[in-house]
Amino acid sequence: MKYPHNAKAVIDVTKAPYYCDNTGRTDCTEALRRAMNDVLYPNIDGIQRALDKLNASDDPNYAVSFEIEKINGVPSVIFPEELEPAKILYFPNGTYLVSDTIAHSLENLKNILSGNPTMEINRQIYIRGESTENTIIRLRDHCPGFGFGDQKPIISYARMEKSNIAHTNSIADITIDCGVGNPGAVGLHFFSNNSGAIRQVHVKSSDPEGRGACGILLTGAGLEAFLKNVTVDGFEYGIKVERTACPVSCENIVLENQRTTAFLVQGANVSVWKLYTNTPVNAFRSIGAQSVVTLLDGKLMGGCNTEKAVIIASGEGYIRNVQTQGYRYPLIQGACCDHFDPYIEEFSTAKNLGAFHKGNLSLHLPLEETPETDLIMDQDLWACVDDYGAVGDGLTDSTEAIQKALNSGKPYVFFGTGHYLVDGTVTVPASVRMIDFMFCDFYAGEELKNSRNVGFLKVNEDSPEPLTLRQVFTWEKFFGYFRFVEHACQRDLVMQDLHTQCAGLYFNTVPGGRVFIENCACTMGGDDYCTVPPFAFYGQRVWAKNINPERGDIQVLNEGSDLCVLGMKTESWGNRGGTTAVENVGGARSECFGVYSGIGGRGIPLYRNQNSDLSVFASCGGHSRHTIWDILVRDTQGTDTRDFGFEEAFPISWYSCRLFGYVSQRNAEKNM
Predict the structure, then answer these.
(1) Using one digit for the tens of pLDDT, what is the confidence trace for 560-573?
(2) Looking at CB atoms within 10 Å, which of 80, 84, 144, 423 has the fewest?
(3) CA-CA-CA-CA torsion for 340, 342, 343, 344, nearest 10 degrees?
(4) Contact partners, residue 640, CB within 8 Å, separation at least 6
């Protein structure tokens, strides 16, 4: 995509200080590595400043913020006290030749956990191309280090084996080409925690035989990501997802000409909506006892009469409305063919149905495409809040200036960089079609922090055009009883790539609207703020694809809404015991695919369903017997209540289990 010329967060890699050549003649490897280092290096200084601040206090339990504290004299600095201003690495159209992996080279890029350097701070890595078709990062042909068996990425978002702070990483609008004669090349090794996205990315092998190890590799404990409009052409494996209980959600995926398997899941939690494959080999394969997979509305074409379209070798799987063509075996479960018809209408490995069900395998709530907002790159149509007096210094109250920008009559509003102090609600008029926060940070003033049942942004004017809110990353000085968005009209609302680390994200005060959520995370500030649900929907129609609500006593409150979830991670706040992932009340209908809930607590149900409809395809777990949910579902229909417990689910280990295919419906006879 293109950006306004005065977008402060955007760093054009063809200009100073990097001067990358986009003609495909000069190698850009070192310049791009330097750019990646420049994005991440300030975290090292930030960790040291926070550590110095802790050590300057004689208090053995001194705390700077939620994630920076000493416990019995031992310091932990999970993240720097303040976010560095966002930097979006922007690639104008052209070809960028590389000869080695594009990644950071900072060996000491780690946080401090219990006094020791621990987690890689590979966060806020934003790569954007001008267009998918014409912005190409291409590996040099027959490049040393990318030979058979090397498994080496062209672009990598991680160098270490573990991190739980790789927030908001993303890549969009770009093509990655592994060139010719590089059979060990991995196009993109992607990693993110809580929120992260791959959008409009094409990974291809220009090799005449389609050689290359893997198009897109997603691997590592805690990995969580959203993929949309992604194409992979060639490679042994198109997309491979490994070793993560957290959700990977995919939409509109095209995989063609793979040599071994198009989409491989190994011990991971993956949900795919609209998968199209055209390859003679296995189209979709899931292995590993911990795997939990969902495949909806797919077309698996070009199969060979000796191969299988879908393989659920182990773990759990739910498949609906999938057409296969040319495969001898459309569906294999374990070692047996369970389905010989090329059309898979519905299939589930579920063994535990809910206490109240009508024999259905799911609720069959429809998924819908997110409305797109057309961008017109006319500078006169874009309003920068800085031009109206907003200042990202963390000191100047910018509430009024932001309101002036929203009232300017311009359809597109965007932010600069830094930390914007706000201390009240701003309203979004019908004239605004998009707000791009450019991954800026916000600080909450005292009045806003203590305001209840309000949002910082109030959407209160209807319009036939959807409103899109995108690209924000707020940190630990933006917290309180308020929420980021109050939806006070029936206008369609789109929320993309929003991450509020310590504040709730959404609630509505007017029912009847449609809400589309993609790759959004929110974590409540802890203690009494946990009484605020990160998401609350009243009488809405909601499609949520990869959401990460944490620390609320109730993570998602659904009162009378239709809610379809494709990928969700929830997590409790340790000081308050367990929390409820979804509270389903008032005739609500919630269908949840690809959910993972971690760090539970005894005596509190993970799901609470009260005279409503619920279907769940999930896994959950804790670290000990004290941090698991002994009650997975508390289900009430009429005056009859039943608890579905940990012991009734399918165990993965002593402290984890799968709650897969639990269905509860109103007006159903109780099943014993």
Answers:
(1) 999 999 999 998 87
(2) 144
(3) 50
(4) 356, 670
